[in-house]
Design goal:
This protein is of the alpha+beta class. The protein has 16 helices and 22 strands.
């Protein structure tokens, strides 16, 4: 096997990365639900709606950095029961936090340190708020607890689909919309947009939504449906957990068949080269297909590049796939990776980060060939969804840089150059802050016209809300194991670089941002100035005004949101 380590990154002696490609169980966790003792429930939650079952539940976010034990939880059977639960919570001074798959990093659901003694109630949307039906030939009505895999499967059966979608199929629709989840897609050269589709976030497809909101005239919380052309809807399209949405209607369009070609033979120096360098650049792949993702493992030189293209008929060399998750070597942690991760964490052997990066690249390279998944073709769902809950769970930061389409290569080049320089400098001093990968995706913005509704509102707090001079978003994520020493300081440097170099930088809500030298979601300048200014004070304040008016009692909030979502 070719040694793909980079001359620009230091080598690590004494540990072989070869010969260990064996299957291994991945790390996964599921919520624990314990039926409540009726007497205890009656004592601690007096007057709680009798027809809604209560549970004791643990909470764990995607990477296990935010956890809680023994929280009260319930699973309302329908929107009416949700309303009854919220009414009870308001009258009794409790807070309600909607919980889907908990596939996120940031403290938008609960904050670290939330305890069983606090008056916080988890509302499980995944048990019953999962209805799916066609609202018309170009719209689907969906409960917010439905998973993206279930939604896309339903659409596929109707000949419908999405242009792009997040890779994990376990995300709930409600959670995805709360943080403007996205895939990766811009128009290829000569490609015409298809009615019912968007190159922006999933939030941009909403035609209407039903939420529990405060009605001042009634003096109570009520269920209300908001149309996309209503001003208040703009704040609810990406509400960050400051609302509880029970159902949405999404605009959809004709399904596509996509070909996805994976390759690991383009060096990072070529793929991320300066504009005008020639060769196989990210910009070149974008122009050809419009749909790319680069996964660049730490301390390696050859990224795993995925390129999707619209292909109505199966290309001769492509394998027809009829189900999603076609990279089993990625979904199930191979023994070589599990062993390295275990040694790094248990023995504090963080210096093995270069070995782990090269092992992950080798696993991808060998796995693509061994599973015949380097060139696959099928209905869109089957190539877009590729991450299961059994994958290796790592921390992730995230940003969207809004720019003009001609400047995408420049943004990628300048970011990756800075990342490489700083990572090399850290390693030279014996610090290895990154042991995962850089992930790069490119999307369009949330153009309101994509909704096909006259007067459609633009999501106020979507990271891809349009801004002057921009038509494209470059999404940049850096992944590393939780607890990695020096990670926060390193990611703080990257964050400051992005905000200072690119005026159009916004945070990716579900991931890590606002870094200090030793923490995350805690830098006061980023929280209080950088983030609001990235939207503009008028937009930020408008969003805060709406969510405060629709939930003046802050039933749908937590300590983090209380501090961040305020007028500036």
């Amino acid at each position: 096997m070719t040694d793909r380590s980079s001359d620009n990154f230091p080598a690590v002696d004494g540990w072989s990365r070869r010969g260990f490609l064996r299957s291994a169980a991945a790390l996964a966790a599921v919520p624990v639900l314990l039926a409540a003792d009726p007497a205890v429930a009656a004592a601690e939650l007096p007057g709680f709606p009798a027809d809604v079952a209560l549970y004791r539940s643990a909470y764990r976010n995607w990477v296990g950095e935010i956890t809680a034990d023994g929280l009260w939880a319930c699973a309302p059977a329908d929107a009416g029961q949700v309303l009854a639960v919220v009414d009870w919570a308001w009258r009794n001074g409790w807070r309600v936090r909607a919980r889907g798959s908990s596939h996120g990093w940031s403290p938008l659901t609960i904050t670290e340190g939330t305890g069983a003694a606090e008056q916080v109630l988890l509302v499980d949307t995944t048990s019953h708020l999962t209805g799916l039906s066609l609202d018309s030939g170009s719209a689907v009505r969906a409960g917010t607890g439905v998973t993206l895999e279930a939604l896309l499967t339903f659409l596929e059966d109707q000949g419908l689909g999405l242009t792009a979608a997040p890779a994990p199929g376990d995300l709930t629709l409600g959670g995805a919309l709360a943080i403007d989840a996205h895939g990766t897609a811009v128009p290829a050269d000569g490609e015409d947009p298809v009615p019912g589709h968007t190159y922006g976030s999933l939030s941009n497809l909403v035609l209407s939504l039903t939420a529990v909101v405060w009605d001042g005239s009634a003096g109570a919380y009520v269920l209300r449906t908001f149309r996309r052309d209503e001003a208040d809807c703009a704040a609810l399209l990406t509400h960050l957990g400051r609302a509880l949405v029970t159902e949405v209607v999404l605009r959809v369009g004709a399904n596509s068949r996509l070909r996805c070609v994976s390759r690991t033979d383009v060096p990072a120096a070529e793929l991320f080269a300066a504009p005008g360098s020639g060769g196989r650049t990210l910009d070149g792949f974008l122009r050809r297909s419009g749909r790319v993702e680069a996964i660049w493992f730490a301390f390696t030189e050859y990224p795993w590049l995925k390129e999707w293209s619209v292909a109505p008929d199966r290309p001769l060399t492509s394998r027809h796939v009829t189900s999603p998750y076609n990279y089993p070597f990625s979904d199930n942690v191979p023994t070589v990776v599990a062993d390295l991760v275990g040694r790094m964490v248990s023995d504090a052997a963080w210096y093995l980060a270069p070995v782990l990066g090269n092992a992950q690249l080798d696993v991808a390279t060998v796995g693509l060939a061994a599973t015949s998944s380097s060139d696959i073709w099928g209905a869109s769902k089957n190539t877009l969804l590729y991450i299961r809950p059994t994958t290796l769970r790592v921390g992730a930061n995230g940003y969207a840089v809004l720019t003009g389409r001609p400047d995408v290569q420049r943004v990628v080049h300048e970011f990756t150059s800075f990342y490489r320089e700083r990572l090399t400098a850290y390693a030279a001093s014996g610090r290895f802050p990154v042991n995962g990968s850089v992930e790069i995706r490119v999307t369009g913005l949330d153009e309101a016209s994509d909704a096909g509704v006259a007067g459609a509102q633009v999501p106020l707090l979507s990271a891809v809300r349009p801004r002057e001079g921009a038509d494209t978003a470059v999404w940049l994520d850096v992944l590393t194991l939780p607890g990695t020493p020096h990670a926060e300081a390193f990611l703080r440097e990257l964050e400051r670089f992005l905000f200072e170099r690119f005026e159009g930088t916004r945070v990716e809500w579900s991931k890590g941002w606002a870094y200090t030298e030793s923490g995350v979601w805690s830098d006061e300048e980023v929280l209080g100035t950088r983030v609001p200014e990235s939207f503009g004070s008028a937009v930020w304040d408008a969003a805060v005004e709406v969510v405060d008016r629709l939930d003046p009692h802050r039933v749908f909030s937590n300590g983090f949101l209380d501090g961040m979502l305020v007028r500036r």
